[in-house]
Amino acid sequence: MRIPTRLMSGSVRRHAPVWIGMTAIISMSWLYLARMDGSMSAMGASASGHAGMAMGDAGAPTLVAVFAMWAVMMVAMMLPTVAPSARVFSTLATRRDPRRGATTAAIYVVAYTTPWIAFAAPAALMQWTLTQSLLLDPMARSTNGLLSAAILLGAGIYQFTPLKTACLSKCRSPLAFFMAQWRDGPAGALVLGLQHGSYCVACCWALMAVMFVVGAMNLPWMGLLTFLVLGEKVIPAAWHFDRVVGVTLVSSGLWVAAGEWLGA
What is the pLDDT averaged over residues 44-70? Predict the structure, then answer.
């Protein structure tokens, strides 16, 4: 089923506040992360102490601050990738109820982001635990070659699993997902957003774990991972882009593991 281009364009114009709001949130999130990264770099890793992330700090405020950092990261990285599905959703919502189309589209976007913010909790706990174990430095970058190899290999292998494929299919074909699961109104937008966001978390969580290899505050890698996730959603399935990413990750993991073995 194809949505007429004229209708799609009209939906985009009517829902301009939604797109402007998304752009503003994305921009502010990246700006916040850039300022945080600049502050930490200026102070130096040994003295950064940002959010209590230094290795010796083990209090609850540390975990809360690390969660906040991950939550902003997930918004900055994943909100841009919802644009294709949000565009389809807004068009369908407007066709069903032109008066509330923009409202339901905004609810869908917020609901989609919610599972990723929830994902920040286990990510923060993992960072805190590994940092306390001296397996991450204060910049949340792996200090252990075997840990790095394991993360890269795990993320690469996950790219080939049935769960990854099933969840990615929902992201690649949002129209089919919406047509099968559609519910009218704000409540329906909330449920669809939560469902779609949950599929996205199940699809991409292993890619996010790669941040522990390169550093959770590594802005270039954050940007690259954002484009990889978006690429998996919009590049035709026949190109097997997700498999290419998997092979690259597995190869990188083997390379790191071989370096550790040869250097032992």
Answer: 62
